[in-house]
Amino acid sequence: MRIGFLGLGNMGGPMAANLAAAGHEVTGYDVLPGLGTATDPVQAVRDAEVVITMLPSGRHVLDCYESVLAHAKPGTLFVDCSTIDVTDARAAHQAAVRAGHRAADAPVSGGVVGATAATLTFMVGAREEDFALAEPVLSAMGRKVVHCGQPGAGQAAKICNNMILGVSMIAVSEAFVLAEKLGLSEQALYEVASTASGQCWALTTNCPVPGPVPTSPANNEYRPGFATALMLKDLGLAASAARSAGVDAELGSLAEQVYRRFAEQGGGGQDFSAIVTAIRERSA
Ligand code: NAD
């Protein structure tokens, strides 16, 4: 297919490369010069059948749509893979449809490693027929493509999942620090909790202390992985969605404060599991 790709950063760059490697004709554009083959965004969307955006925020997506929608062929499928607010995702969808196009939100999990290896998971919000068109394109960049529901449902799935993750990492980290204080070894806690009711991804894959899970970022000086700054962004989006939906997500919003404080103290670039070091310091 002819694909226009807007936003060739840490994620978009390797994703666009994987589309090209799968045989698609990709025209890429980034506001930073030198990253893409197109010199302006209109050039990237003009002949495209599918336009993919991978941008920092909802504001970027809405502004970008405003500048390109009128220049794409009628019926072009716009797929936004950025992580943005559910409200912004629905507004972007409406803008695309009003301009005579089709649209889907398809945020990802898997990070830069998944973007490079084409092993991302896509969470898609789209009408059935738009999902059918998007699915083979997304499959060239990932391992799993899940149709979560109508427009906005992909973003909803992403922020709900990451709210669970943000909260559970703090719970696991507090438990490890408490165990240390109680004279219980990290390995013993791991062996019990990983096969008992405390089992979760934050413990068994991204374990916040070095040792029990040799591949976790804790064994590599907390190099991300999934940076605290990105977790903070996603918890901000979750808090905003909870507010507008009238949900009292007490731990979700507390988790946002906990990671914000850690980021302000210089932890923003570390893997979010480094939160255990802040809890340990405050408990010294
Ligand atoms: P990034 O900052 O590396 O890349 C964004 C790119 O968009 C930049 O190169 C920027 O110059 C470009 N850009 C901004 N406005 C533009 C415009 N109008 N037209 C064209 N290009 C424009 O960010 P990233 O890490 O690639 O993340 C992109 C999105 O993916 C974000 O929404 C992020 O939350 C999400 N995400 C990131 C990760 C990760 O691990 N990095 C994981 C999952 C989801």
Radius of gyration over all CA atoms, rounded: 20 Å
Q: What share of residues is helical?
A: 40-55%
Q: Any idea of the CATH topology of the largest domain?
A: Rossmann fold
Count the strands? 8
As laid out across the biggest beta sheet, the strand order is 2-1-3-4-5
When the domains are counted, the total is 2
Task: Please report the number of helical segments.
Answer: 12
Family: Belongs to the HIBADH-related family.
Pathway: Amino-acid degradation; L-valine degradation
Pfam families: NAD_binding_11, NAD_binding_2
Catalytic activity: 3-hydroxy-2-methylpropanoate + NAD(+) = 2-methyl-3-oxopropanoate + NADH + H(+)
Write out key terms for the chains shown.
284 residues; Rossmann fold; N-(1-d-carboxylethyl)-l-norvaline Dehydrogenase, domain 2; 2 domains; three-stranded mixed β-sheet; 12 helices; 13% strand; oxidoreductase; 3-OH-isobutyrate_DH-rel_CS; branched-chain amino acid catabolism
Q: What does this protein structure show overall?
A:
The chain contains 12 helices and 8 strands. With 284 residues, it is α/β, with parallel strands linked by helices. It has a 5-stranded parallel sheet, with helices on both faces. It has a 3-stranded mixed sheet with strand order 6-7-8. Helix 4 (86-98) links the parallel strand 4 (77-80) and strand 5. Helix 3 (58-68) packs parallel to helix 4 (86-98), helix 7 (153-181) crosses helix 11 (250-267) and helix 10 (228-245) runs antiparallel to helix 11 (250-267). The longest helix has 29 residues, at 153-181. The protein starts with a strand and ends with a helix. The model has no long low-confidence stretch (mean pLDDT 97).
